[in-house]
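S1.2 Input.
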Amino acid sequence: MATKKASKKTTKKSATKKATKKAATKAVAAKNQLRVRMYRVGFGDFFLITVPTKAGPKHILIDCGVHAGDIGSMEACVKDLAEETKHKLALVVVTHYHADHLSGFASQFNEFTKFDVEMVWISNRLDPDRKDSAKLKAQIAEVANKLQLRLGARKDPDPATALAMAKLENATGRPLGVKGKKKKESSNEKALRLVTKEFANNPPVKYYQGGQKPLLPKSLQGALTAELLAPAPLTSGKEFASSDNKNAQYIMHAADNGLPPTETLEPFEKKWPAVATDYDIWTFKEYRTDADRKAKVPGTETWKLMEKVLRDAQPDTLLAMADAVDGTVNNQSLVILFTCKGKKLLFVGDAQWGNWAYWLYGKKSSGKDLPELQERASEILGSIDFFKVGHHGSSNANPIPAMAALNPACVSMCSTESADAYPEKKRPYGTISKDPNKKGTEVPRILLMEEMEKITGNRLVRSDWIELDDAKAELEVKASPEARGQLKKLPANFSKGELYVDYIFPK
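S1.3 Output.
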């Protein structure tokens, strides 16, 4: 009797052990699938690709930063990264020199020094062995710092000025008002030092541009391939420096011709040397208002209108140059096409028009009458399975021709933030225009997001749709008011974590 009981107990224990082992094997198999994880950090990029290999899952980190719209989740997200990867990364990619793609490496410096990394890829515009690289970085920093001081001195700051200031801080990783000859290391500089020198095992660092064949870490060889589409080769000079696709655009002109000294940046006095009332009363008769037409002579409303017309016609050079700095850095972005198990993943960093034009057309292109896409570009866009939305959903980083050519079956992720979580719920970047005749400057661009949802059959997911509720990190952040309930039922193969959204590619 006792023997039978013991036998039954042993059999039950053995069955439980087998079931546990089977479940564990199943869990490991699920983890060893191609997956993209997008962390919600605010207005910034932080993506983790899990690559299935014969030796188990390997990981690629693409950028780690937040700038505007910081929701305070970076520390918790990096801890999750460390736990998920066991402090081991096959590849770290730094797309370009902006705080919203770098700041996490600086703010979580100590945690990142514990990571073993096989290899690092960085845009070759940041290669310290290139003399012109250091020169350009120093020039951008100098222009940005001068612009910050001049914009900060304005007595009538408006949303456009605030947006320009945010762009400049993003480009330098240094807040407004840092003075003195011995400046402390900026956040961007600290982040770059981390990824090039301070990982635990001091991995090799490769600096790349479009068209080069990248060297893959050993653990990824045979598991995936990578094609570098941009930035444009250094030999192209400023041919692909444009930040937007417009023919007569002041900003584009400034970016194409380099960044001039700021002493000559404001051609008009802030206060007018003369006012309309200094002129003959009939000088501005063409601008008379209805109220003035009823009167015998033009009145003050006509003069105010004339001044407004002249002011609107005057380019705000400081704001234009802030855009030029921002666009110059964004166009240095690495653009990478990964292919794994037949699935194609396109990561475009913050690439703007010039960067796109290089691999879409192979030549400088602008205006409405654009040439046809190059055959290879058309092939890539028409066959990708995953698209990382450029520059957090801004219209100048997601060109209409490229979006129109997207594979309608692809899925898409956009790491963005439509409103600051703390404290005033303002948009981190730009404003929504209430005037139907004026284009809004908001990022993410609402019309673009809606159009991309249509293009991808509602398979676009934004990071700011996620409601964070992490007791361990004491985080509680609401979803964007623009989410409209999309996350109540995620598209197929998406899943939500406490700090992120995952997309697991179907086998």
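S1.4 Remarks. The radius of gyration is 26 Å.
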